[in-house]
Amino acid sequence: MTKLSVNLNKIALIRNSRGSGIPSVTRAATICIDAGADGITVHPRPDERHIRPHDVHDLKAMLSVEFNIEGNPLEPKFLELVRAVRPTQCTMVPDSRDQLTSDHGWDLSRHADVLRPIIAELKSLGVRVSLFMDPDPAPMSAAKAVGADRVELYTGPYAEGFQEGQRDAAWQPYATAAQAAIDAGLGVNAGHDLNQGNLGPFLQHVPGVLEVSIGHALIADALEIGLSETVRRYKAICRR
């Protein structure tokens, strides 16, 4: 069964807008876990606009499920944080400092040499490493060669195509890329703009998805039906 990791960035974003500590990131994590979430994801950024270093340490101290930290390993402070916390998984994302959100995967023809020693170091610390990748089968063998354990397929284009009614065309590249990753010996994760409407068809057609990381849509749904019920509904989709 595909695991659900809940991204809590938007909880921190709301909290930071007032500086009062409300809503609590750790309390939100507890609610998600009690409702059945298999993991918690955070993506601390250099500008600290949502998740901040103390959140990462606070979560590490209380989590009973998998902890996934996303970010750009070429940012020294991010790498220091991952070394200190040693999460279950580090998802390496090629974000620039001014990006609103993640919108592309790694170009391993450019970054393999710099990523290889970082990946080796994190794996030596017991951290599983996933690379954020576009739905292209060609670089999957390179992702394995550089040392990654998994890839996370960037599902933004899938969500856009699904919304526009081009459903078959939307999932087909992901099925091909996922199979290429599996054939290369990699695990497959997925994330970005997945929601209650498009998640089920994605998992139905894309083979071997071990984990989905969902934040924005899930927190938006929680504003209407509550966080616990929202997590339960997403978990039900993953089970089906």
Could you explain how this protein is built, in words?
The chain is of the alpha/beta class and 240 residues long. The chain has a single domain (3-239), classed as Aldolase class I (TIM Barrel, Alpha-Beta Barrel), CATH 3.20.20.70. Helix content is 48%, strand content 17%. It has helices at residues 9-16, 25-34, 53-62, 76-85, 108-124, 140-145, 156-163, 167-183, 199-205, 216-225, 227-239, and strands at 3-7, 39-42, 66-71, 89-92, 128-133, 150-154, 187-191, 209-214. Strand 2 (39-42), helix 3 and strand 3 (66-71) form a beta-alpha-beta unit. Helix 7 runs antiparallel to helix 8 (167-183) and helix 10 (216-225) crosses helix 11 (227-239). The protein is globular, with a radius of gyration of 17 Å.
Would you kindly provide a brief summary of this structure?
48% of the residues lie in helices and 17% in strands.
List keywords for this structure.
eight-stranded parallel β-barrel, globular, alpha/beta, 8 strands, TIM Barrel, 48% helix, 240 residues
Report how far apart the termini are. Answer: 8 Å
Taken from the alpha-carbon principal axes, the silhouette is globular
- What is the CA-atom radius of gyration, in angstroms? 17 Å
- In total, the number of strands is 8
Number of helices: 11
CATH superfamily: Aldolase class I
Q: Share of helix among residues?
A: 40-55%
What are the secondary-structure elements, in order, as H or E? Answer: EHHEHEHEHEHEHHEHEHH
Domain count, please report it.
Answer: 1
Report the major sheet.
8 strands, parallel, barrel
CATH topology title: TIM Barrel
CATH class: Alpha Beta
Q: Work out the strand percent.
A: 15-25%
Mean pLDDT score, rounded? 95
CATH architecture level-2 label: Alpha-Beta Barrel
Identify low-pLDDT runs: none
Structural class: alpha/beta
